[in-house]
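Let us begin with a simple case.
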Amino acid sequence: MSVSAYAQRNHAIVKISDNGEGIPTSVQQKLGQPFYTTKEKGTGLGLMVCYNIIEQHKGKIHFVTEEGEGTTFTIEIPLENKTNGSYF
């Protein structure tokens, strides 16, 4: 697993990558939905909470995955406060 963070065009960018199994196509559209889980003891709330927090900060989250190769999630959050133009 690797994690990187940097600033780009007034956004904080965080990339989280693994070299696991990847996310099957049948699961990809369901990610972030409440109570959807592939784990035996999961609640299906973790990724949904992440999506909501990022959205509340006017950010975006997306992923690139390839079965058998791994997955990279990218989170983009604006650094500029639109109300007063200052940076956080």
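The second case is a distinct protein. As before, the sequence precedes its structure tokens.
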Amino acid sequence: MKNKQQMSLVVLDMAGTTVADGGLVEQAFDAAATRLGEDPATMIDYVRATMGESKISVFRHLFGGDEQRAQRANLAFEEAYGELVADGRIAPVPGAAEAIAQLKDQGRTVVLTTGFARVTQDAILDALGWADGLVDLTLCPADAGGRGRPYPDMVLAALLRTGAVDDVRQLVVAGDTSYDMLSGVRSGAGIVAGVLTGAHDEAALKEHGATRVLSSVAELPALIREYEGEYEEGEG
């Protein structure tokens, strides 16, 4: 018999999940590499494979642990991405803001997380008009010790900072990348939902732990209701 489970905390990724950036991550990476005299073609496969990871971690790997080069590259990337955002090249995933509003109406706490630095995250939130009141908390890797995904740190920081749940199984994690799925699994979340609006396909999301794969985050409120209903039926 299942126990009733109220999914009280929802942790959502930004780019590719709630924010449609139209490939801006790759464009910003290309621009940053070019500005630094690097060849982006030699690095792009790794960048694609590690979508969702903290960007400074990506650059540390690419430059073999050379911290100075990694920091320069990360700064150039954040600047290039910020320029694209300022140019109006970003929009919400259709239905994302409405889904967040539904989740909050259902009494859930909603947190947005990202692999970007805080300055870029804030630029995105400002550009979308999401800076005030849309969600309960926003987190970047630096807010949770600096490691970012695929570690569970941001998800667990959301739990600790909001105090919304007392059991990790009451967590919902949703994202568009393999690393989003890994961070959800490693946090112990009851629902780890992949969405198909971003970087990785259904096979990759399931391979890395997705318990469900959705066409869009717009489907998430209904999925959570369905999941909770299964527990209620089990009690009966």
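The radius of gyration is 18 Å. The chain has two domains: 9-20+91-235, 24-86.
Keep these points in mind for the review questions at the end of the chapter.
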